[in-house]
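Mods, move this if it's the wrong board.
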Amino acid sequence: MNIKPFDIAEHLESDEDIRQFLEEAAATGDSSDLIHALNIAARAKGMSEVARQSGVTRASLYKSLSESGNPRLDTISKIVHAFGCKMVLVH
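Not the wrong board. Structure tokens:
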């Protein structure tokens, strides 16, 4: 029996699903959680589409959101914006 690994990207079916998923990831306060969640969300929406809306190349998007990626804040902000979200500081 061949069991397929669970991939949450396959279950993020709408923009609202993606936004809620990103909110939960951002709430942890851990930047690596947010970057991982952005990778999942980008796969759910389509890497090419997110890259286009973010104004970055597809290769750059893959690299930025990889486990070894270290994206700049402005890149993260562009990607977040592509999902109809914005980053805010709260105290």
